[in-house]
């Protein structure tokens, strides 16, 4: 059936696509884009489009219909323009400039204010992320509106899980939006005390194309893949379209020995209906990555003696991960009438992570001090955590854990691998049989996210919910060599049971527009309840048990914005949000049958700012204050292998942010942003005190958070004319505090209820505070140590591309060449730096060693060349 002219179809499709993100994302408001103008079609001969619920329309009726659609979807855009929070958006150009060979979905975000990121490797290799000083595990992440982070542990998973690869890669992204702090309820993800990162996948377009691509680069990096877009399969606005993309990559990695092999696949299909007003879509992503990581930072003296890229050789130690991610999303967005849109998403996320770690027991200094090699190589092997285990150790009274030998559960005897002449009473001899481990984890999440948008004359009401359940289980094994078999009942030190978390979350918000649509009020509230159960069938740390808990929290939000003259928007907001404790923090109560579960961490955000928005100039300035109460704290006693979890921490984050873009000419755009963050602890407590979460420490009231730069900034220029485009950018990372170890003071008095100061051995801290009375005495009367800050640095990056259009060829339309140069000036710098352990953990106690500096160095100059052919 004829539905009108091509122009009329495009007008209608464009109007509808504004809401669904097919053509124009509402997030352009954060990127200084003017509102789209959708002009009603001029009268024309022929039948008009079919109005839903009616028959063919006259040209006049069609114009009225499209005008209504214009007003309807324009309101959706205004919801983003008048948002009462700082918002940063990253689009196609920034993604292309980052480069999927060199960057990660986290490094991409460093182009926005208050975001710091570093990683061990190029590509998706162990990224460490903070937003306004809040670490990745405390942030919410969404993928096309569904929760992307692990519901049980936060982030992508627990420490040293899912550190290579990701559920979505740079090549699969179409855009990313960062909502720091507490966003409005319909933008806020699950369980965050620091912000929400919203990733969006690529979608098929109406125009067909096929593309093959590949590239080479530094560190023996290669990649190749293809992308096929069907365009409309058939005629008419309601014709379906599909996109298939696959890419595989290999890199020898950085530092030496950290090779990664990965592959990622995206399939997306969209089926419009109701004359393009509604959409049914499906998305499947399958990504995998297999590679080595550095579980512990590299001693600076070894880097200086060998090379900038030095890493421990695999013959001495290694940690390796093999990760897989499968995501499937089925969504529908239905236009009911000019006052109502209903939508919903069904989703399933499945991930698996195999972690293997090895440390050579025959290497000097590996398990005991050696003056010629006083370095901690790898803390992630069983012996360092559990000491002597097995029937021989128990028979001779050596084992520190009564559960170290249980016939039928754990019958492995590490002593059989001890060198000739070793005595069963020599605890160190057991390390030869406990020098390697393998941990297998897999999880499955299923869920549903219904939503309704209601449009009234002065109210835009959004009602939504998230109902989801994640199930996770795993096994842990120890052995002497990486190729030993894994056998439950023999060398397994954790298996059986599993963790489940079910969450029920609902939100309601109302955008109220008053004073001729100048004043916008946005009240809202989210109610969340979770049920968690953790069944432990067998573990060296405890008897079989089932831990379960129900928790609930209400999270209010209120935002206000006012449209001032001269394109200015003033805004302010207050929000409360909560993060639930990881299920591994649940323990048996004192009665042995009840569950002790930490209450949620709570953040309170206060924010105010001003935004200037025109088609040529965009400016934003804001100030914020965030306070986190009831922070999770834990203490592990290595002599009893028991851990204690509580809500004893508190911290605050204060700062201000600036960002802007200016279109100098039609071809040249200038951009930049800067942010200042001051983050410090409000009390004393045990904590993981670095963003990498690889260091256990004791933090003191008033001291700054380690690894959080005070100043961050981006600046650059972008040129785009015809077939040529270029982008030169700089990233400034300011000074940041480092950590060092507290000394061994076994004779010091008690400073924490029930915990002697000797428990602080191996703990790290940004610095010794000027301690009052009992705390100074507890630290052995030591004077305060001067704060040490890691120096700031500036990295320059360059991106060049040229599109060569081919004429006279039947199939190839164009060739595109691109060049990415990261760290253009070849700067050598430290990303993460601290004074390494002053003692090696040994069989439940600590052996002092000389203090030394340890670090992750920054990735040196890296060059990547890519070419793609479009058909």
UniProtKB/TrEMBL annotation:
The keyword Signal applies. This is TonB-dependent receptor. Belongs to the TonB-dependent receptor family. Keywords: Cell outer membrane, Ion transport, Iron, Iron transport, Membrane, Receptor, Signal, TonB box, Transmembrane, Transmembrane beta strand, Transport. It comes from Acidiphilium iwatense. It is a multi-pass membrane protein. Its main location: membrane. It is found in: Cell outer membrane. SUPFAM superfamilies: Porins (SSF56935). Residues 408-824 form the TonB-dependent receptor-like beta-barrel domain. PROSITE patterns: TONB_DEPENDENT_REC_3 (PS52016). Residues 81-182 form the TonB-dependent receptor plug domain. It holds the Pfam family Plug. Residues 1-30 form the signal peptide.
């Amino acid at each position: 059936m004829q539905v009108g002219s091509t122009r009329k179809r495009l007008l209608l499709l464009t109007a509808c696509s504004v809401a669904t993100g097919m053509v124009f994302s509402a997030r352009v408001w954060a990127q200084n884009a003017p509102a789209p103008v959708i002009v009603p079609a001029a009268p024309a001969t022929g039948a008009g489009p079919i109005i839903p619920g009616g028959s063919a329309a006259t040209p006049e009726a069609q114009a009225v219909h499209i005008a209504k659609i214009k007003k309807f979807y324009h309101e959706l855009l205004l919801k983003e323009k008048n948002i009462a929070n700082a918002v940063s958006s990253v689009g196609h150009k920034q993604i292309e400039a980052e480069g999927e060979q060199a960057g990660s979905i986290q490094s991409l975000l460093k182009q926005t204010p208050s975001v710091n990121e570093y990683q061990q490797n190029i590509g998706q290799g162990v990224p460490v992320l903070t937003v306004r000083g809040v670490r990745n595990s405390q942030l919410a992440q969404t993928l096309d509106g569904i929760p992307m982070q692990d519901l049980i542990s936060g982030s992508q998973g627990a420490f040293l899980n899912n550190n290579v690869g990701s559920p979505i890669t740079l090549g699969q992204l179409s855009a990313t939006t960062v909502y720091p702090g507490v966003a409005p309820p319909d933008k806020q993800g699950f369980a965050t005390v620091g912000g929400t990162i919203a990733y969006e996948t690529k979608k098929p377009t109406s125009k067909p194309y096929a593309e093959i691509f590949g590239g080479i680069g530094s560190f023996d990096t290669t990649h190749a893949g293809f992308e096929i877009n069907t365009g409309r399969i058939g005629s008419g606005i309601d014709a379906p379209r599909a996109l298939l993309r696959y890419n595989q990559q290999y890199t020898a990695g950085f530092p030496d020995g950290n090779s990664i092999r990965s592959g990622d696949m995206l399939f997306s299909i969209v089926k419009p209906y109701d004359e393009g007003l509604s959409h049914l879509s499906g998305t499947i992503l399958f990504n995998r990555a297999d590679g080595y990581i550095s579980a512990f930072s590299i001693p600076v003296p070894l880097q200086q003696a060998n090379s900038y890229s030095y890493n421990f050789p695999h013959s001495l130690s290694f940690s390796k991960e093999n990760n897989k991610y499968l995501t499937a999303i089925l969504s529908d967005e239905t236009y009911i009438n000019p006052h109502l849109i209903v939508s919903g998403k069904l989703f399933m996320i499945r991930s698996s992570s195999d972690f293997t770690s090895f440390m050579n027991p025959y290497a000097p200094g590996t398990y005991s001090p050696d003056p010629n090699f006083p370095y901690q190589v790898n803390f992630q092997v069983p012996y360092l955590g559990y000491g002597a285990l097995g029937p021989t150790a128990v028979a001779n009274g050596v084992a520190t854990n009564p559960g170290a030998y249980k016939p039928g559960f754990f019958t492995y005897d590490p002593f059989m691998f001890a060198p000739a002449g070793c005595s069963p009473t020599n605890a160190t001899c057991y390390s030869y049989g406990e020098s390697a481990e393998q941990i297998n984890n897999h999880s499955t999440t299923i869920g549903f996210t219904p939503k309704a948008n209601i449009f009234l004359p002065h109210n835009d009401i959004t009602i939504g919910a998230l109902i989801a359940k994640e199930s996770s289980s795993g096994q842990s094994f120890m052995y002497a060599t990486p190729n030993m078999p894994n056998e439950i009942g023999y060398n397994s030190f954790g298996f059986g049971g599993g963790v489940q978390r079910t969450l029920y979350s609902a939100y309601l918000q109302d955008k109220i527009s008053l004073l001729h649509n100048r004043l916008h009020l946005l009240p809202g509230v989210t109610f969340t309840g979770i049920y968690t159960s953790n069944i432990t069938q067998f573990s060296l740390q405890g008897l079989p048990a089932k831990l379960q808990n129900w928790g609930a929290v209400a999270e209010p939000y209120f935002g206000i914005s006012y449209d001032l003259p001269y394109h200015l928007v003033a805004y302010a907001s207050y929000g409360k949000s909560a993060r639930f404790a990881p299920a591994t923090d649940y323990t048996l109560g004192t009665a042995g049958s009840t569950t002790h579960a930490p209450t949620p961490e709570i953040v309170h955000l206060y924010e105010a700012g001003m935004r200037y928005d025109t088609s040529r100039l965009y400016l934003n300035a804001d100030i914020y204050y965030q306070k986190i109460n009831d922070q999770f704290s834990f203490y592990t006693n290595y002599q009893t292998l028991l851990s204690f979890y509580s809500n004893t921490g508190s911290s605050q984050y204060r700062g201000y942010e600036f960002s802007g873009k200016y279109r100098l000419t039609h071809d040249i755009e200038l951009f930049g942003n800067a942010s200042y963050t001051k983050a410090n602890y409000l009390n004393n407590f045990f904590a993981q005190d670095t963003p990498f979460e690889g260091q256990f420490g004791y933090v003191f009231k008033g001291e700054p958070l380690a690894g959080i730069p005070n100043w961050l900034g981006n600046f650059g220029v972008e040129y785009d004319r015809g077939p040529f485009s270029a982008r030169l950018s700089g990233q400034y990372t300011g000074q940041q505090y480092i950590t060092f170890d507290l000394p061994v003071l076994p004779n010091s008095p008690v400073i924490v209820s029930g915990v002697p100061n000797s428990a602080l051995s191996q703990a790290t801290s940004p610095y010794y505070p000027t301690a009052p009375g009992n705390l100074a005495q507890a630290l052995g009367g030591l004077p305060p140590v001067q704060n040490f800050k890691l120096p700031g640095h500036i990295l320059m990056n360059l991106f060049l591309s040229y599109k060569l259009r081919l004429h006279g060829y039947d199939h190839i339309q164009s060739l595109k060449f691109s060049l990415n140069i990261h760290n253009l000036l070849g700067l050598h710098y430290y990303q993460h730096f601290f004074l390494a352990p002053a003692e090696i953990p040994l069989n439940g106690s600590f052996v002092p060693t000389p203090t030394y500096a340890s670090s992750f160095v920054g990735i040196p100059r890296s060059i990547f060349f890519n070419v793609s052919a479009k058909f």
